[in-house]
Specification:
Blueprint (H helix, E strand, L loop, with lengths): L11 H33 L4 E9 L16 H10 L1 H7 L3 H10 L9 H7 E4 L6 E8 L2 H23 L4 E5 L13 H25 L6 H8 L10 H4 L1 E3 L4 E4 L5 E3 L1
Length: 259
Amino acid sequence: MEEKTKEVELHFSDFWSVFKRCWVVVLATMIVVFIGLYVVLSALHVDKYEAQATIYILRNSNDSENPNVPNTNLVQDISIANALIDDCKILMVSRDHVLNPVLKDTPALSDTTWKDLKKMIKIENSGEDRVLTLSVTTTNAEMSAELANKVATYACEYFNEKYQQPISSVVDFAEVPDTICNPVSLLLVLLASLGAALVVYVIYFIRSQMDDKINSAEDVEKYLGLSTLGMIPNRQDSNRRRSRYGYYSASHDGAAGKQ
């Protein structure tokens, strides 16, 4: 006869029994990892500040000499202005006409290259309007605002000169930011600590599943399929009773002694 191997099924009680044995270690691991990771990230963290300037783009052509006559080309101008958004994004970070002049006008950035300055700049457009948001991020709040305003000014001047029309203009100059833009994420720290706690629990669970010894009456019923009618108590446990300050056990001569 072929021996049939009985597959061991996992139930929720198995996971819960392992958790009851190791929850203190799991909780301690999560707390230690959370505090340690937060302290390390805070010590190594470099605060950065982001300043934003707003640029508006509108191609304005007026073929009529009478200002009271409405501009018949307004719809066409708006359509052309929308098409110029992508051109403006490229020309605003021009090396020779924008970035290098800004660096030359900022003595504090004498050791900074135009490539480094370009990495600090971010230009965004929602896609539904003709407004560009120019952001500059540095480790100094005043420097971020100064660079954002200079880049926006030089970019508009170059863009208007390129098309020989007042197409772009700075509508909102950047202000000095008072808060950092890259705080330490407590959510990521919490997720990392939960991940470490989960790893510890998985280790305990795997060890419990690999343990093939019979340690309790539940193991007898689980692995052997037998029901226990009774249990023989441990002699040390039967002769010892718990007190407030220790254990008392009965000696061979009947006298009680404290341990």
